[in-house]
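User: Structure with zinc ion, tokens only please.
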Amino acid sequence: MASFQETNKDLSGVFQLSTMTSLLDGVFEGAMSYEQFKEHGDFGIGTFAHLDGEMIGFDDQFFRLRGDGTVTLLKSQDMTPFCSLTYFRPQITKEFRTPHDKKAFENELHRLVPSDNLFYAYRIDGVFRQVVTRTIAYQDHPVPMIEAVKTQPVFHFENIRGTIVGFWTPSFAQGIAVAGYHFHFIDEKRQNGGHVLAYVLDHGTVQIDKKTHQTLYTPETESYLKANLSRSDLEYEIKATES
Ligand code: ZN
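Assistant:
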């Protein structure tokens, strides 16, 4: 018999803590601890209070990838201002045996799903000819994200085995999350990774979990309550900070 906890898990949705729009406005205050948010998924991506690293989680293990290149497992009190989570239960699997650059690979991904208008979670395990990641560094004071990324460390990896975790968000949800693909990477040794800017898959397996809905949790932190969430050029700001 399933436990009380198990029956209350939302297995078919994406849990979204706060919005991309608030990150753009510099809302970096932690809104939920790992202890709290792990009740909403065993898989996902996000960032941390003060933008202190990039988050990646799968197989019920969550990591913090910091701007100084270090990787640590999350502690219960670690706080996030923004994350996308789910219980990863893939229905679609495909093996890729030949190299694909980002564009070719994402074209293939499109053919595996029924529509751009749904939410999907992705996991890609394999060998990558190239992965380019960024990891935003700790920000002392709230600063618009477009400023914070100006000093972001960028990492280039070649012929590296690892895992990409992320989501497809439909265009109508731009600003809640990042519309399109939003991927984070960690290597097999759990020593490197970050927010994915570019990649070439050599070979690997993709698993896709089609979700039926998104649940948006709006924080009540002081910085969120005071944020300006109407951005005059949302598309530009998201492109400049996320790709
Ligand atoms: Zn990211």
